[in-house]
Amino acid sequence: MLLFSKLLTREHICFQSESSISAELFGTLFRSVFHSEIHCRESVRRSGITLYTYDITDPELIGRIFRKYGFSEGAREMDQELISTSSLGVYTAGIFLACGSVNDPSKEYHMEFSAPTDELASGLSLLLGDIGVSAGRVVRRGQFIVYIKGSESIEDTLTFIGAQQCTLELMNVKIYKDVRNKANRIANCDAANIDKVLKAALKQREDIRLIAGTIGLDSLSEELREVAELRLENSDMSLQEIGESLSAPISRSGVNHRFRKLAKIADELRHGGKQDE
Known about the structure:
This protein is an alpha+beta fold and 277 residues long. It has helices at residues 20-34, 59-69, 80-85, 88-99, 118-130, 151-160, 164-214, 222-233, 239-245, 252-270, and strands at residues 7-8, 13-17, 40-44, 50-56, 100-102, 110-115, 136-140, 143-149.
């Protein structure tokens, strides 16, 4: 958390976080390791977000910090020996608590780390690669961003740093989104089918009215006349329902065949031609 803090120099160490939990944990850990009390300062940004800040300026205390963790002036690099002799998961968790964030998964899958230097961003990318997570990099407002896209990669990272409960919550959100999207696709498909059926029914009624107003339905065969009359009386009836309602029930395809015959008769009448049933 110290390595990824906002400032890390011989004159000034500044740790900042928008998370009250991370800030409180930083203070607790610092007191536990260095047996020194440090003060947390709160300030409210224009956006309304509270910023929690620890400023360490005591030269003697800063000297102890540098000696303990092997920090060097002007060069912030990950100590591979420290990583190899410690828990890599805990080390990565500290980085996340210092500069990491995860977007609301109901909106998008995005996790990022805002590293203070390019060297640290590069080291973090390699570290994530070691655990099988592919991360991208970009510079944004002077910060070196390491970001992870994709729910599975984010789940793997959260699990690795010990945030299993967050992993489960993300998976639940993903399951909910998948079910909701499937339901929407089904609903859209049903709506499209209903719209298609209604348009077909309107066309059939239009054809039948044209036939009735010109040569009359009595000119049709009994089979076509019965289908035509059922359609005029039932605009929302499906082809299958019409087939089942006939005096001699037939299949859906049989009903569709009769409507095609009626459409052909109507088209001939529109073009001034004559027909024979």
